[in-house]
């Protein structure tokens, strides 16, 4: 009963291939980082988009180098930025956002370059004005956050290339040519599967559920590590909830797509929610150790087999065959040997979830499915304006500093400000640290590469490779993305604008820009979110509402909504403890009693889940 995932039989009864040790290490690192607001999501790796971005950059880069017309180097940047602007979603959404990037980016590039040619004062006015206007785009456009940031980025970078009208027009036209070429490549010539991100995130949810259950199997009859409070308390619950919310937010982007395409992912989302609730209930039993050990151990073993089979089914797609048959039979057999209690209820919920996964793969009808959370992807104009003004103020400061101290490439500093300031203080803090760290490593790596070889052919080949790798990794981890992004821009700049000190300038400018962005969000209308103590109180309130809904016999939909609210409130309180490197916890004088209350949050959630699954088991007996 106490094996590990890699030692287990697969869904067809044969030995499942052992997972490499680095996979477990990577997911453990992701759980640790998520608690501290640093993202590490390997499931977002997109090789196809990376290959496409490499080709998108290779064409204008080859043309510029072959012709010797380095003034058209902005075509390279335009192609790359367009690939970067391509976000997961249906093709109609991707076409609209990328078309707007080409349409808006071209005049922004011209105006930024031309107006900056009138002097320092003009540059100090133009850059923040562009930033404010671009920040307002998400007020009217759905899911336009990245578009807004990149249009603002184009503007502040263009200000760093002050030219008279004629040359500014060449710069803008070269940007338009490169971005339009990438638009055609993305939407016409090399279209990728628009639903692939949803499959990747669905797989990620089941992988995290498998990790959670595997830890229970490994615990066996021993004490569970969450029986006492520790810094990583309930790490699996957070990991699964984060993955579920990422999936939910992504599915919302596909609202309006054909029902036959969208429905399987709604089923997978609901199946994962049911499995998660069952896993929480069973984990609660492992923590308290009140019932017979063999019951929870047998349930954990059977549930882990089922989750592994569900994950395999997601990977196989409609060709699932009988991959879910054996684990379903095993669940039924184990449940038949158990008394009608918590463990039996968890197995029943798992059976129902496996049925939803089977329906998602086969297209079979099911009784009901919870609808996804649907939002229009817009933000309030007050919030957008506040964000734009903060960014603009930071841009003015860093641009003035760059001019006074004669930075070689001041637009790298202003671009860092725009990219880092994409949220509240907690987000900017982590993004700032990641950008500084990534720029440092990327700059040093680029410097070493330039010392080894400076031939155009070698550097161009490396630039194409870096473009592909950076796009493939852009959503995996921001710091890793910045490492390759920094190397790419240093090498491309060296090719089209040769000069000394590019690598060190990139490090310095990014560091100044990132630090300025962090200071701006800390000093200008700082948004730290609610106090940690209030988040803990909200968590206790929502978890009590969850358990009250279960005990009052509310319907399944009401209980599911209460469960999600309780989970999100618990996560918000736990993450706030570690935000800004723990500074908020110290500033707000969090007491030991408050910290201990976090364990009570999870205990309440576990008790509610356990009560719900006991009710399921009792209901099934009555139905029988």
Short description:
By secondary structure, the protein is mainly α. It is built from 24 helices and no strands.
Structural commentary:
The chain starts with 20 loop residues before the first helix and ends with a helix. The protein has helices at 21-35, 47-67, 74-85, 91-116, 120-135, 137-140, 145-159, 165-189, 196-219, 235-253, 259-288, 293-316, 325-336, 342-362, 381-404, 410-420, 425-452, 456-472, 478-496, 502-523, 532-551, 556-578, 583-587, 592-623. With 624 residues, it is an all-alpha fold. The radius of gyration is 26 Å and the shape is elongated. The chain contains 24 helices and no strands. InterPro entries: Memb_transporter_dom (IPR049453). It holds the Pfam family FUSC_2. This is FUSC family protein. Keywords: Membrane, Transmembrane, Transmembrane helix. Residues 399-519 form the Integral membrane bound transporter domain.
Layout of helices and strands:
Elements: H1 21-35, H2 47-67, H3 74-85, H4 91-116, H5 120-135, H6 137-140, H7 145-159, H8 165-189, H9 196-219, H10 235-253, H11 259-288, H12 293-316, H13 325-336, H14 342-362, H15 381-404, H16 410-420, H17 425-452, H18 456-472, H19 478-496, H20 502-523, H21 532-551, H22 556-578, H23 583-587, H24 592-623
